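Hi everyone,

Forwarding the result from last night's run.
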Amino acid sequence: MNRELMLGNTEQVSMSSREIAELVESRHDSVKRTVERLVERGVIAQPPLVDGIKSGNGVVAQEYLISKRDSYVVVAQLCPEFTARLVDRWQELESRQHVTVPRTLPDALRLAADLAEQNTSLRLVVSEQAPQVEALQRIAQARGTLCLTDAAKHLGVQRKVMLAWMQVNRWIYRREGAAHWLGYQPRLQAGLLEHKVTVLGTEDDGAQRLASQVRVTPKGLTVLAQKMGGIN
């Protein structure tokens, strides 16, 4: 959902939270939570909430309509590496607009002022997000792995909250009757998680009792920080 308007109209072009979720390959509810957190912190303005697409069971999910400037903040918070996709999408949307050529000097000055304000807003977004992007890059380049408890501490979230998110989003699971978490194979193959085998003890027959512990890699911690709304 988006609005395509002529340049110079009083309304602004907006992009829906669902479209942003598709661009960054994230769940729509996660995007909406990120938007709400940013509004609470005063980083972005409160966007209007509208009815979106009706699902197969007849439920209509509500979506936020987000301005261009605020969409960059949301995407930078979720997944900085997808910012290029957002730029491409905005260029695609804006290329469909009918640009009104200024016919008078006041109109030309007003258009120049509007464009200058947009450029300033984008520079401010880049400046605001630079520390977070740098922190994510440092995490991605780090070595070693973290247990689930330490990973939650690095993310600044409760362990149970992180585990619930990872379970719902098919990062980890437990076999029936088992106490230890295991990583889903696609996450292991992607280098987001690793399994570490530890020796628990020795059986009566001399065989060692082993346990496999799932651990989060630096790459995995980076993705979790992006998907769960950033790092502290």
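The beta strands are 14-16, 49-54, 60-67, 172-173, 182-183, 193-202, 208-216.

Cheers,
N.
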